[in-house]
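Model it.
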Amino acid sequence: MAAAGRGDAGADPASNPGTVAVCFCESTPLLWRAGDVRTARQTGVVGTLMGSLARQPRQNCRLGRPLELLREEARLLADAGRAVLLSSSRPKSTGAANPELVKQHQEQMDQSYSEQSQLAQQDKKAVLLRVMADKKQGSNQSDQALQERLLALDHGFTFPRTAMAVQLSTARAGMSYGPEELRFLAADSLSPRDERQEARYRVFRDLRRRGFYLTTGGKFGGDYLVYPGDPLRFHAHFIAICLPMDEALSLCDLLALSRLGANVKKTVLLCSPGAEPEEVLYTSLQWSGMV
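Modeled.
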């Protein structure tokens, strides 16, 4: 791993128990180590578990690591000196692949192919033996044909390499990028690209300072869901929508947001950063109906 980013980028996160190692899959910040996830939770960073079981990749009932962070969560940790930003780049000197690692990878692939070939052969034998057991009362001619197929499996079985199962390592995603591109992605991924992203970060930082917990609010039409405590123990009380101070909002949008908040029993917050660096202004919307 090559370190990149702010402040403590060159430090070893293992040497400081208060820091976490934030890895990047392109521009998505991830936490892979269990200790880092625990430390992030203790600082109020919630994130979203997105890892699945290797043999059941489509299940979503028991998700595990990595923990995907919001950009604002990763930036807040980095600004507080609690994160080391890492990118899985290749050696900086030449950018070429390490011959020893290439040889080791090839040996692992050959071993995997040999094991899978043996398993495939055993499966085919088991199928033929099961068919022979089911046809014990059949003709001798059919039994002889099955015996010949069993002998052919021992002498002429071939398992195509194209049928080999290959495990993709998500911890090393982004290997198609060059070393300079990877370092750029890690260093630039948390920088705000427009005024709206800067507004989101300032609102996130201010609400965290006030003791609230935040998660993504896309499913409720907002930027964040705001919880009074740990989301494992509380329901969200607010839907935060981040807007620059000079951005206009139509009356139809205001009505739609108010009705949405009333339907899901949450208060809509319009959040806008003020003129001062630490200032954030809040406006709450509630649908009271007609009297």
